[in-house]
């Protein structure tokens, strides 16, 4: 059944025979995890900070645009405390376009820069700046409103939005977007337990169906689900051990155009952890019980013998059979010391306690 | 017979908005049989497709074409009640390959359309029911012939279907033989799986070797549900068959095809797992809990033997229980009998169980709260002046008929029709709800 996953990508048009391959424009959608608490952790560890990452990311976006004049980029943020997932670029065309234009500050821009790059970089930096500036207040508000700091990860929301955007561009009759190939790059720093399991899985299947590769650039801790995401969609998963060289990762391994994917051997890691998450305890498990009605994954058998998600009653006999523990043999008493005195007796006792001999 | 009319009608229910309708008032037809003008569907005046297209003031047909394109976009309106469903399915697909299938009422002929639809069905079936199994039978020359064995690999079935493409439809169909064979195939299926038969039936008769009523009784006893898609007309024996094996629920189990697209839609409806009926769940002493393992994939530099086929392969999956290596999933570990599966296989079925709420259309108004679709950031049309609404020149304009906004009831974000369809059909997530970091 693994063939399902393989088939989806096997019949992708392309391959060495496709000559016009390098002429098709492509859309690069980047989802940037801006969870401030996680960034603080990374910064304290002294490896990388958001500023360094952004400058590398901008170089990547610019080089993507430089490859083909019709190439496009899109940038979403996820896991921010103010507003969850958000589209940063392309900017929504507002009626008050003039107001944003004059606000354009030149933080890192030199006037000699290629105009298109300057516009994009400027607008991205401005938006991120204002987003980051609002976060401390937001966080304070959250702490004060008494609901605690429990915040759901919004990576799935950013992914959903990105996929809707790509879906629209695929259906569009606009000649600029015709035949536009798309890919998604996730730059993630948060842990797996912030990911809502079902919605992340849904987005993975949607991407798989639409034949959109999801590349993952992982900082911080390794992630099981994002590995599965990139594996299912023929993407690249890279766990970055040396963030100093981030620019190199971004412009090489994570820079493979969708049209080149059939030709290039992807730098995927070959061992992937396919474990699932338990619905009750949220632990990642490798052996679990699955309800035959709703397929929810349980790490423990529920006390009331009812499925916690769909409330179906389980067969009592079956539960008792599952709960049954294997019989443990009583430990063989160590009587070796006594062997000299009454050896014969010891021998017979050991023999009776032994399990079935293992066939050789 | 009246259900036949019902079937007939639903094809013409979809009136094209934006087109002046013939306002001849006819005698009031029952709701289900109503045509575009209020009378019976077949009393409507025939509309020629080229009459619909009319030039506007500037002599361009662009606006009317856009309107037509828009009205073709069907919204996703399915039942979203979260039923208990039998997700682990075993299905036997029975295809009629008797002489009637060479009729040319579908082009190029019935058999060819059936096979191409069946191939799509198999793909979609395994896409949405990854841990289910399928088998295919054809009815030909009064016999039932096995096309593909019960298996979970879509590839096998598609290859088998492609190979019978060349087969010439021949002889009479025999429902009894096909049902008996399906019964045999479904005999050993475990109790936590559903047992289903889907029959595509082109003929209006069946030539059986024995008493088919006895076979139907056996099917009922073994809890096999049979659904039939008829290609010609309703047949009494199929009606009885469906009624008895579906706890009297004929409406969802027996359909007759109206036109080509309808055939496809009916076929694809069978992809969604059947809901567990109340009668069934009460009768049962409980559902099963299956112990499953989620193996990790490994890769080695040198090929090693897998425990399932004893072949030397690079990489594979390691059973978390006994650490033996298998090469394909899902499977049952040959060493410790643990069911091995990928979590992604399970997750694929979740949207049947946790369906997404439908979006609500925002009524036409002068001012709207939103200017852009939350999902794809496409600009919405602006609000309209209500006084302009009744004017004749605005009748055809799209923004006077619909606000083009569809709102999620949970997060109150508004979406365009494309994103509405996409998020319900493919994504199964609401981008708005997922983007909110507060809701758990």
Automatic annotation (TrEMBL), chain A:
<keyword id="KW-0227">DNA damage</keyword>
<dbReference type="GO" id="GO:0006289">
    <property type="term" value="P:nucleotide-excision repair"/>
</dbReference>
<dbReference type="InterPro" id="IPR004600">
    <property type="entry name" value="TFIIH_Tfb4/GTF2H3"/>
</dbReference>
<protein>
    <recommendedName>
        <fullName>General transcription and DNA repair factor IIH subunit TFB4</fullName>
    </recommendedName>
</protein>
<keyword id="KW-0539">Nucleus</keyword>
<keyword id="KW-0863">Zinc-finger</keyword>
<dbReference type="GO" id="GO:0008270">
    <property type="term" value="F:zinc ion binding"/>
</dbReference>
<keyword id="KW-0804">Transcription</keyword>
<dbReference type="Pfam" id="PF03850">
    <property type="entry name" value="Tfb4"/>
</dbReference>
<keyword id="KW-0234">DNA repair</keyword>
<keyword id="KW-0805">Transcription regulation</keyword>
<dbReference type="GO" id="GO:0006355">
    <property type="term" value="P:regulation of DNA-templated transcription"/>
</dbReference>
<dbReference type="GO" id="GO:0005675">
    <property type="term" value="C:transcription factor TFIIH holo complex"/>
</dbReference>
<dbReference type="InterPro" id="IPR036465">
    <property type="entry name" value="vWFA_dom_sf"/>
</dbReference>
<comment type="similarity">
    <text>Belongs to the TFB4 family.</text>
</comment>
<keyword id="KW-0862">Zinc</keyword>
<comment type="function">
    <text>Component of the general transcription and DNA repair factor IIH (TFIIH) core complex, which is involved in general and transcription-coupled nucleotide excision repair (NER) of damaged DNA and, when complexed to TFIIK, in RNA transcription by RNA polymerase II. In NER, TFIIH acts by opening DNA around the lesion to allow the excision of the damaged oligonucleotide and its replacement by a new DNA fragment. In transcription, TFIIH has an essential role in transcription initiation.</text>
</comment>
<keyword id="KW-0479">Metal-binding</keyword>
<comment type="subunit">
    <text>Component of the 7-subunit TFIIH core complex composed of XPB/SSL2, XPD/RAD3, SSL1, TFB1, TFB2, TFB4 and TFB5, which is active in NER. The core complex associates with the 3-subunit CTD-kinase module TFIIK composed of CCL1, KIN28 and TFB3 to form the 10-subunit holoenzyme (holo-TFIIH) active in transcription.</text>
</comment>
<feature type="region of interest" description="Disordered">
    <location>
        <begin position="339"/>
        <end position="360"/>
    </location>
</feature>
<feature type="compositionally biased region" description="Polar residues">
    <location>
        <begin position="350"/>
        <end position="360"/>
    </location>
</feature>
<dbReference type="GO" id="GO:0000439">
    <property type="term" value="C:transcription factor TFIIH core complex"/>
</dbReference>
TrEMBL record, chain B:
<dbReference type="InterPro" id="IPR013083">
    <property type="entry name" value="Znf_RING/FYVE/PHD"/>
</dbReference>
<protein>
    <recommendedName>
        <fullName>General transcription and DNA repair factor IIH</fullName>
    </recommendedName>
</protein>
<dbReference type="InterPro" id="IPR013087">
    <property type="entry name" value="Znf_C2H2_type"/>
</dbReference>
<dbReference type="Pfam" id="PF04056">
    <property type="entry name" value="Ssl1"/>
</dbReference>
<dbReference type="GO" id="GO:0006367">
    <property type="term" value="P:transcription initiation at RNA polymerase II promoter"/>
</dbReference>
<keyword id="KW-0862">Zinc</keyword>
<keyword id="KW-0227">DNA damage</keyword>
<feature type="domain" description="VWFA">
    <location>
        <begin position="90"/>
        <end position="271"/>
    </location>
</feature>
<keyword id="KW-0479">Metal-binding</keyword>
<dbReference type="GO" id="GO:0008270">
    <property type="term" value="F:zinc ion binding"/>
</dbReference>
<dbReference type="GO" id="GO:0006357">
    <property type="term" value="P:regulation of transcription by RNA polymerase II"/>
</dbReference>
<feature type="zinc finger region" description="C4-type">
    <location>
        <begin position="319"/>
        <end position="336"/>
    </location>
</feature>
<dbReference type="InterPro" id="IPR002035">
    <property type="entry name" value="VWF_A"/>
</dbReference>
<dbReference type="GO" id="GO:0006289">
    <property type="term" value="P:nucleotide-excision repair"/>
</dbReference>
<keyword id="KW-0234">DNA repair</keyword>
<comment type="similarity">
    <text>Belongs to the GTF2H2 family.</text>
</comment>
<dbReference type="InterPro" id="IPR012170">
    <property type="entry name" value="TFIIH_SSL1/p44"/>
</dbReference>
<keyword id="KW-0805">Transcription regulation</keyword>
<dbReference type="InterPro" id="IPR007198">
    <property type="entry name" value="Ssl1-like"/>
</dbReference>
<dbReference type="GO" id="GO:0005675">
    <property type="term" value="C:transcription factor TFIIH holo complex"/>
</dbReference>
<dbReference type="InterPro" id="IPR004595">
    <property type="entry name" value="TFIIH_C1-like_dom"/>
</dbReference>
<dbReference type="InterPro" id="IPR046349">
    <property type="entry name" value="C1-like_sf"/>
</dbReference>
């Amino acid at each position: 059944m693994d063939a399902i996953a393989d088939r989806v990508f096997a019949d992708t048009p392309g391959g060495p025979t496709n000559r016009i391959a390098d002429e098709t424009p492509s859309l690069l959608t980047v989802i940037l995890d801006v969870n401030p608490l996680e960034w603080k952790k990374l910064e304290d560890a002294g490896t990388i900070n958001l500023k360094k990452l952004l400058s590398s990311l901008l170089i990547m976006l610019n080089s993507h645009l430089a490859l083909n004049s019709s190439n496009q980029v899109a940038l979403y943020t996820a896991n921010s405390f103010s507003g969850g997932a958000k589209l940063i670029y392309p900017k929504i065309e507002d009626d008050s376009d003039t107001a944003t234009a004059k606000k354009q500050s030149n933080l890192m821009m030199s006037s000699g820069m290629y105009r298109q790059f300057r516009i994009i970089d400027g607008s991205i930096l401005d938006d991120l700046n204002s987003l980051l500036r609002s976060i401390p207040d937001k966080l304070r508000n959250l702490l004060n409103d008494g609901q605690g700091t429990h915040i759901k990860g919004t990576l799935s929301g950013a992914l959903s939005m990105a996929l809707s955007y790509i879906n629209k561009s695929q259906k569009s009759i606009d000649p600029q977007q015709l035949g536009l190939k798309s890919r998604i790059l996730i730059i993630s720093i948060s842990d797996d337990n912030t990911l809502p399991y079902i919605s992340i899985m849904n987005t993975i299947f949607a991407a798989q169906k639409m034949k959109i590769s999801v590349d993952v650039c992982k900082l911080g801790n390794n992630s099981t689900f994002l590995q599965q995401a990139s594996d299912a969609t023929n993407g690249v998963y890279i766990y970055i051990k040396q963030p100093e060289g981030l620019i190199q990762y971004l412009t090489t391994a994570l820079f493979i155009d969708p049209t080149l994917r059939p030709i290039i051997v992807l730098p995927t890691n070959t061992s992937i952890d396919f474990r699932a998450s338990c619905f009750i305890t949220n632990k990642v498990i490798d052996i679990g019980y699955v309800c035959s009605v709703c397929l929810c994954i349980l790490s423990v058998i529920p006390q009331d013998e009812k499925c916690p998600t769909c409330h179906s009653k389980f067969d009592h006999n079956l539960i008792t059979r599952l709960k049954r523990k294997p019989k443990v043999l009583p430990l063989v008493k160590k009587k070796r010391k006594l062997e000299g005195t009454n050896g014969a007796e010891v021998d017979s006792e050991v023999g009776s306690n032994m399990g079935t001999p293992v066939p050789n | 017979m009246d259900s036949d009319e019902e079937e007939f009608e639903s094809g013409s229910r979809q009136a094209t908005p934006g087109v002046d309708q013939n306002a001849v008032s006819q005698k009031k037809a029952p709701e289900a049989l109503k045509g575009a003008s209020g009378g019976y569907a077949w009393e409507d005046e025939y509309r020629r497709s080229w009459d619909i297209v009319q030039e506007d003031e500037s002599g361009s047909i662009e606006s009317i074409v856009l309107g037509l394109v828009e009205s073709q976009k069907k919204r996703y309106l399915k039942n979203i009640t979260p039923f208990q469903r039998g997700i682990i399915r075993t299905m036997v697909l029975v295809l009629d390959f008797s002489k009637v299938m060479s009729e040319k009422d579908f082009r190029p002929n019935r058999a060819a359309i059936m096979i191409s639809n069946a191939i799509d069905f198999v793909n979609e079936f395994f896409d949405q029911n990854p841990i289910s199994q399928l088998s295919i039978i054809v009815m030909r020359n009064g016999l039932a012939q096995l096309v593909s064995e019960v298996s979970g690999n879509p590839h096998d079935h598609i290859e088998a279907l492609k190979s019978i493409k060349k087969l010439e439809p021949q002889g009479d169909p025999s429902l009894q033989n096909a049902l008996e064979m399906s019964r045999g195939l479904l005999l050993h299926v475990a109790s936590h799986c559903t047992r289903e038969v889907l029959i595509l039936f082109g003929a209006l008769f069946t030539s059986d070797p024995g008493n088919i009523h006895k076979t139907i009784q056996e099917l009922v006893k073994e809890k096999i549900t049979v659904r039939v898609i008829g290609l010609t007309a309703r047949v009494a024996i199929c009606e009885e068959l469906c009624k008895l094996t579906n706890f009297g629920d004929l409406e969802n189990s027996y359909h007759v095809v109206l036109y080509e697209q309808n055939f496809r839609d009916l076929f694809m409806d069978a992809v969604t797992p059947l809901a567990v009926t109340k009668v069934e769940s009460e009768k049962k002493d409980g559902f099963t809990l299956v112990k499953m393992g989620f193996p990790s994939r490994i890769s080695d530099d040198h090929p090693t033997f897998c425990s399932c086929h004893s072949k030397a392969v690079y990489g594979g999956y390691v059973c978390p229980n006994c650490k033996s290596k298998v090469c394909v999933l899902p499977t049952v570990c040959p060493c410790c009998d643990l069911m091995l599966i990928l979590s992604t296989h399970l997750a694929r079925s979740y949207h049947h169980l946790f369906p997404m709420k439908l979006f609500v259309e925002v009524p036409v108004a002068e001012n709207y709260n939103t200017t852009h679709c939350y999902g794809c950031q496409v600009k919405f049309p602006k609000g309209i002046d209500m006084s302009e609404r009744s004017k004749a020149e605005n009748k055809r304009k799209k923004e006077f008929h619909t606000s083009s906004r569809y709102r999620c009831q949970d997060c109150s974000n508004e979406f365009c029709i494309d994103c509405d369809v996409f998020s319900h059909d493919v994504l199964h997530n609401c981008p708005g709800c997922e983007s909110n970091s507060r809701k758990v």
